[in-house]
Every structure is written in C-alpha cells, then in structure tokens.
Specification:
Blueprint lengths: L6 E4 L2 H4 L3 H12 L7 E5 L6 H11 L4 E5 L2 H7 L3 E4 L6 H7 L3 E6 L10 E4 L27 E5 L5 H10 L3 E4 L1 H4 L5 H13 L3
Parallel strand pairs: 1-2, 1-8, 2-3, 3-4, 4-5, 5-6, 6-7, 7-8
Helix pairs in contact: 2-3, 3-4, 6-8
C-alpha cells in the first residue's frame, strides 16, 4: 500500500463543505483520474465527536484509502487500515498495542528511530497554517528517516514544489489547501513521480 502513495490529502471541512455529501464530492473530485492507491486521504477533523467523524470516514472510503488522525477508537470502529499520530500524541508503542494497521507520525525534525510506517516531515516551506515556524527547507528530506515512507508537508502549493520535494528525498507530499481548492490531484501525483525519477541512483 505505502509504496504507491504519492499524495496525502489532509481534510478540512471549511474548504470541502460541512455536509457528508459535500465532503464526499470534494474527495471524488480530488482523486478523479489519479492512479489507484496514489492518493491517501487523511481525515483530520479534530472538532468532531466520534459518531460524526465515523460518518465522514465512511464517506471518504468510498473513493480512496483513508488514514485517520489521532483517534484510534474511531479507526478501530471504522475498520481502518491506518492511523496518524500527531507529534504530541500517544507513543507509537502504545498505538501498536491497540491498533494493528499502518501507523503514521508527524515530525518537525528528521527522526530515523520513530518505528512508524509513514512519517510527515515539515514544514518544508513557509505555510500560513504555521506562520511562526521556521521552514526546514528541502535539504532536510535527504536526512536519515529509518524505514518509514517520508512525506513532505508544509507549503506544498504547486506541482513544481511537489516535484522538488520528491527529487530532494520525499516519497510523497501532503497538503490541505491545494487538495480542496483545485481540481483533480493528477498534476501533483505526476509531479511526485517525475521527482522520484530524477533522484540520483
């Protein structure tokens, strides 16, 4: 599963629409035309209770594979295959004791010892979502990160930046606004593939 991921589209109902129907339509538009398995939707709706969150996850799973932010209880109830732990979340060891699927984590510095399957690293570029955080720059993507698949995050607002991140060492890219304010994510998937092909052997 992880080898095929090129884009992680992080949800935001403010951009997608508040209703399950609008939420699903935004995901359907984003993944349209993308190769199967190339887009992973990260459901990160922190303000929702478990019932409403589960409903959105079920909608999202109609269109693509899903990773659920932080809520192991909801991930188990949904029969999900992946959970994402924020940097201040529970430990990977505690998560693995409860959840048998894929585990992703967020990091703001290279970490070769997370034990995770997927690692978001960033912000790589400046991003409005974290205006007070100094960007890491693309050189950090070449740092050791263990066996986790590396996902560049932060300021990836164009296919050109997606390609640059992949060329520098990322296996995939993650973003919010670019996923839900445009059309299909095909240009981003294609850009990551192009960047991967440009890496030195």
């Amino acid at each position: 599963m992880l080898e095929s991921i090129r884009v992680v589209a992080i949800t935001d109902r403010r951009l997608m629409g508040e209703t399950p129907e609008a939420f699903g339509a935004a995901i359907e538009r984003a993944v349209r035309g993308c190769p199967p398995g190339s887009v992973l939707v990260q459901v990160r709706e922190r303000d929702l209770d478990g019932k409403l969150l589960l409903e959105l996850i079920q909608v999202a799973r109609r269109y693509t594979r899903v990773i659920i932010n932080d809520r192991i209880d909801v991930a188990i109830a949904a029969g999900a295959i992946a959970i994402h732990l924020p940097e201040a979340g529970i430990s990977i060891a505690d998560a693995r004791a409860q959840f048998e699927g894929i585990i992703g984590v967020s990091r703001h510095a290279p970490d070769a010892h997370t034990g995770a399957d997927l690692m978001h690293l960033g912000p790589i570029w400046a991003t409005p979502g974290k205006p007070d955080v100094t960007p890491l720059g693309t050189s950090v993507l070449a740092a050791p990160h263990g066996t986790a698949r590396l996902v560049a995050v932060g300021g990836i607002d164009s296919p050109d930046r997606a390609r640059e991140a992949a060329t520098a060492g990322a296996d995939a890219v993650a973003f919010i606004r670019a996923a839900w304010t445009g059309d299909s994510l095909v240009p981003f998937v294609t850009a990551v593939d192009a960047g991967l092909s440009l890496r030195e052997p």
